[in-house]
Every structure is written in structure tokens, then in C-alpha cells.
Amino acid sequence: MTTATRRPRIAVHKxxxxxxxxxxxxxxxxxxxxxxxxxxxxxxAEAGPIDEEAEVDIAFVEGSVATSQDAxxxxxxxxxxRYLVTIGACATAGGIQALRNLxxxxxxxxxxxxxxxxxxxxxxxxxxxxxxxxxxxxWGCPVSGEQVLGATKSLLAGHLPRVDxxxxxxxxxxxxxxxxxxxxxQPCMGPVTSTGCGAICPRWQRDCYACYGPAVQANVxxxxxxxADSGMPAGDIARxxxxxxxxxxxxxxxxxxxxxxxxxxxxxxxxxx
Length: 273
Known about the structure:
By secondary structure, this protein is of the alpha/beta class. The protein folds into two domains: 9-156, 3-Layer(aba) Sandwich (Rossmann fold); 168-271, no CATH class. The protein has helices spanning 20-26, 30-36, 68-79, 89-93, 105-112, 145-156, 168-175, 180-184, 200-203, 220-229, 234-241, 251-271; strands at residues 9-14, 40-44, 56-62, 81-87, 136-138. Helix 3 links the parallel strand 3 and strand 4. Helix 1 crosses helix 6 and helix 11 packs antiparallel against helix 12 (251-271). The chain is globular, with a radius of gyration of 20 Å. It starts with 8 loop residues before the first strand and ends with a helix. Its cofactor is [3Fe-4S] cluster. InterPro entries: Hydrogenase_assoc-protein (IPR051349), NADH_UbQ_OxRdtase-like_20kDa (IPR006137), NiFe_Hase_small_N_sf (IPR037024). It holds the Pfam family Oxidored_q6. Residues 18-152 form the NADH:ubiquinone oxidoreductase-like 20kDa subunit domain.
């Protein structure tokens, strides 16, 4: 789509999300201004320009598919884009709103809204890739602005960027951060989570919550078993797995397994009186 007669074109589209990934893009500051001198940003409502129908070289998409109108709108964006890149947990894995996939969404809507028939809400919150072809997924909650900038430069140069999916534990070693799981017994998700955040939580003595999705060859079952052996209740293990990126495999598969154990135990307790 890019030609010698015009500058590359970029769009940033929002679906169901909190806008945090768009803000990460905006918070780049001067590097974003420098990028704007070499490309035309045709649609980025958070920043000002609005032209959702524009044909672009790169379309960044934040947010999950949550309404019946989202899918149709998304197909149009795909048709008008050379590359489609999802940014953040919502776009890549359904986001925290995908927690409703585990429950009856209609029941929730009826409990919140006086006239639920006016609410256009799908039963599930799904990643963009379940509706259209995605060329590149950038994880994070929020995504790293530097990662988005690097991906933009790579795509405009004609090749996909290398995305590091090694575990956060590797980043902790590089940053010389003390392991919070070993030193403090915290239920850290770092062993099964992709790096990209710079291990910010462990470096501040907090356990990882898996913001950047599953690491390559993540042994989630082994981590869950370790947490159970450390005394963590099955329900807490399920909630830890079925959280920010809970719709992503293998978090979803293992999380549902531990959730089923809770339901089974509760059933047995009810039978026993």
C-alpha cells in the first residue's frame, strides 16, 4: 500500500478497553512527535485525528470484540489495512472484561441496567484474532509504548519485528532483581509470563500478575501445582490464572481446571451436609 508518492499512513482504533494502551502510545512524547514527522496518522481519536474509514499501512487495534457491531467494524478495518497489529491484553486475549466469559453475561446486565434490552453486549469478550487475521500481537496491560514504536519502524521497513516471549524470570535475572517467589513466598506468575515490562513488579518487590501473556513453553500446570503445595487455595489459583490474560491458552485451560476443582469440592461439601 505504501508508495513513493506519499508518506506511510497509520491508524489507531479503539474497541472495548480502558484506553490505557492508547495512552501508552501518547506517553512516548518526543519519539511520537518524531514519528509524526515521517508518517501520516490519519485516525487516532485519543490524539485528535478522526478518519476511521481511511486506508492505512498499519492499523493498531486496542480493545476486545464485545458487541455485535464490533465484528462488522473490525472486518472493515482489516480490509483497509496492510498490517493489523493488536496492542494490549484486551485486543490480544480478551482483556479483563473476558472474565464475563466464565459467567452468564445476560444475568450481569440485567442486574446492573434497568432496561437491559437496550444493551448491545455479546456473551463473550474475545480477542481480535478470533474475528480477523492479525499480523502482529503486542501484549501488555498496558502495552509498552517503546514496543509499539519499534514495531512501527520494523513494519514500515517491510519486516515483522522480533517479540521477546521469554519468561519474566529471565528479565529479573538481567535486572538483578531478587526473586519474590523464593525470597518472600509470593505467588508470582513470572515463570510463565512473557517479558516486555522490564520486570517492573518484581523489581518493586511485587509478584507478577501476567500482564504480558504466556511465555514460550510456559509450564502453567507446574506453577499451579507449586502454588497449591505452598498452601494457596484452589479458588485463588484459578483467579490468578483467569485474570488479565485469562482467555489466553494455557492460562485459560489450567485456570478452568482449578475452577472445576473448587466446584467439585463445593458439591461434595453440600452433599455431606
